[in-house]
């Protein structure tokens, strides 16, 4: 039996999806228990998926506050959804406490996180990562943060969103 600290070999669940791959289809509930289906946006507009480890943590709280503050900057180019393994109830409470304005998707079974290769087994949650999906349903850009405790670069995300919108 392996100890929890033992490193396991990389697997599909922990190897980030590649640019050019078809984005795995999914349906997840948001903080209001409304379903978000990736396929609903195919042919309409790109989708930006912001994977993050957990609600209520310091970095995730700061980061999601920035998403809300910069919502118009990002939503100009794509439909936005933040994805974590937290419950819809946690998301709802967090949205109310933080005054968040964007959609938070609940991946409690970790199926979507694993399908995108963003599972972090050490914390049983998602890595901090951004996946941009084009209108064609293909992965256009992926960035996994090397330091899970560090916020993503919002300027870099906006630049990549702008490039994606120009290609669409």
The value of Rg in angstroms is 15 Å
The biggest sheet amounts to: 5 strands, mixed
Give the class from helix and strand content and strand pairing. Answer: alpha/beta
What spatial order of strands do you see in the largest sheet? Answer: 5-4-3-8-9
Examine the secondary-structure arrangement and name the CATH architecture.
3-Layer(aba) Sandwich
**So what's the CATH class?**
Alpha Beta
The topology string of helices and strands comes to: EEEHHEHEHEEEEH
Give the helix level as a range of percent.
Answer: 25-40%
Mean pLDDT: 86
Q: How does the overall form come out from the CA principal axes? A: globular
Treating each run of at least 4 consecutive H or I residues as one helix, how many helices?
A: 5
Summarize the structure.
The chain has 168 residues and is an alpha/beta fold. The protein is built from 5 helices and 9 strands.
Description:
- The protein is α/β, with parallel strands linked by helices.
- It has a single domain, classed as Glutaredoxin, CATH 3.40.30.
- 28% of the residues lie in helices and 21% in strands.
- It has five helices and nine strands; from the N terminus they run βββααβαβαββββα.
- A five-stranded mixed beta sheet has the order 5-4-3-8-9. It has a two-stranded antiparallel sheet with strand order 1-2. Strands 6-7 form a two-stranded antiparallel ribbon.
- The radius of gyration is 15 Å and the shape is globular.
- The protein starts with 26 loop residues before the first strand and ends with a helix.
- Residues 1-6 have low confidence and may be disordered.
């Amino acid at each position: 039996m392996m100890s929890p600290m033992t490193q396991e070999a990389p697997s599909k669940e922990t190897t980030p999806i590649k640019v050019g791959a078809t984005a795995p289809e999914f349906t997840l509930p948001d903080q209001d228990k409304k379903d978000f289906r990736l396929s609903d946006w195919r042919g309409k507009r790109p989708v930006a998926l912001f994977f993050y480890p957990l609600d209520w943590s310091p970095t995730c709280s700061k980061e999601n506050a920035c998403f809300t503050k910069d919502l118009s900057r990002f939503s100009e180019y794509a439909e936005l959804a933040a994805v974590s393994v937290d419950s819809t109830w946690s998301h709802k409470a967090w949205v109310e406490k933080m005054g968040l304005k964007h959609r938070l998707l609940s991946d409690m079974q970790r199926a979507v996180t694993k399908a995108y290769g963003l599972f972090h087994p050490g914390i049983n949650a998602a890595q901090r990562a951004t996946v941009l999906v084009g209108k064609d349903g293909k992965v256009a850009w992926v960035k996994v943060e090397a330091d899970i405790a560090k916020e993503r670069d919002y300027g870099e995300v906006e630049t990549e969103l702008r490039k994606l919108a120009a290609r669409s």
